């Protein structure tokens, strides 16, 4: 990890130019500071205008992970943003959405030549076991409307030397530590949005089953002994992948168990 860098404001015009023919699909907006971009979009969803709304924060004062945990960010050290996806009328509540978002992020990073990308169920992007990015998916209350989801993403680009976070046994990493010339924030954002856009088209028409094999190829814990805890669950076994709903499959002494709740913690069983 290298020292923190001065942080020029994100150039949205540049992001739209890099998005090319997909630019018209997006409505991006930046804020200097907010509590959490997910909270903003969940509590104040923009009106439906057929576009995919994106909120990027230069600073989050209370970035969120799952189960009340925090996403930590430092000025100029990364990207924190959320997108609001609305699904077609009549769609079922999306299954495996968090995994689909992780796969899009993985593909965008692989196209930037980041080697060793792994996906940790349900929502983390690791590089050789170190956490590079996190995802938080929250469904909007439906109230008779088609499903809509806010997908929040935090990516470490250039962490300050003193950066640490709790509860990451494998440690954390940033793109500056993985690439000789890391992308600009504009390029990174445009690539991730483009990948989300393309992959969600597949997801909207064919669902998670169409993406399952690609997710499993990157499964950080494939065939490893794992421990799942939280929400009254305490299970051990071998991680054998995910099913068509995005549920984690763990083979234990009593057969294969399906873990659907994303509100649990998954760890390698030492
Ligand atoms: P578990 O392994 O227990 O399932 P998780 O890592 O999936 O947890 P999330 O709720 O998805 O947990 O993400 C929040 C966690 O991410 C924090 O508790 C912290 O450990 C880690 N974290 C927070 N900020 C960063 C960051 N900038 N880079 C890497 N990891 C971070």
TrEMBL record:
Q: Which GO cellular component terms are attached?
A: cytoplasm
Database matches in PROSITE patterns: BPL_LPL_CATALYTIC (PS51733)
Q: What is its EC number?
A: 6.3.4.15
For this chain, one GO molecular function annotation is:
biotin--[biotin carboxyl-carrier protein] ligase activity
Q: Which residues form the BPL/LPL catalytic domain?
A: 25-204
| Top enzyme class | ligase
Show the catalytic activity.
biotin + L-lysyl-[protein] + ATP = N(6)-biotinyl-L-lysyl-[protein] + AMP + diphosphate + H(+)
Keyword annotations of the record? ATP-binding, Biotin, Ligase, Nucleotide-binding
Q: CDD domains, from UniProt? A: BPL (cd16442)
In its UniProt entry, what is this protein called? Answer: biotin--[biotin carboxyl-carrier protein] ligase
Origin species, per record, is Pseudothauera nasutitermitis
């Amino acid at each position: 990890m290298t020292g923190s860098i001065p942080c020029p404001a994100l150039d949205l015009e540049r992001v739209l130019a890099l998005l090319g023919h997909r630019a018209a699909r997006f409505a991006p907006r930046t804020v200097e500071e907010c509590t959490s971009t997910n909270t903003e979009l969940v509590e104040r969803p923009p009106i439906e205008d057929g576009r995919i709304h994106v909120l990027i924060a230069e600073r989050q004062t209370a970035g969120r992970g799952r189960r009340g945990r925090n996403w930590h960010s430092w000025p100029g050290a990364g990207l924190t943003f959320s997108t609001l996806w609305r699904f077609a009328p009549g769609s079922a509540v999306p299954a495996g959405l968090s995994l689909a978002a992780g796969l899009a992020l993985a593909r965008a990073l692989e196209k930037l030549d980041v080697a060793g990308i792994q996906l940790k169920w349900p929502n983390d992007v690791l590089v050789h076991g170190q956490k590079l990015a996190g995802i938080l998916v929250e469904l909007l209350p439906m109230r008779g409307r088609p499903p809509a989801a806010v997908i929040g993403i935090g990516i470490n680009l250039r962490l300050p030397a003193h950066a640490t976070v709790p509860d990451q046994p494998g440690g954390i990493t940033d793109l500056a530590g993985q690439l000789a010339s890391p992308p600009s924030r504009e390029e990174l954002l445009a690539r991730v949005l483009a990948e989300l856009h393309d992959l969600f088209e597949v997801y909207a028409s064919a669902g998670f089953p169409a993406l399952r094999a690609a997710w499993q190829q990157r499964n950080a814990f494939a065939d490893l002994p794992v421990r799942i805890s939280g929400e009254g669950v305490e299970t051990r076994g071998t991680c054998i992948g995910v099913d068509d709903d995005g549920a984690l499959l763990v083979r234990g002494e009593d057969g294969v168990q399906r873990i659907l709740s994303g509100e649990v913690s998954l760890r390698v069983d030492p």
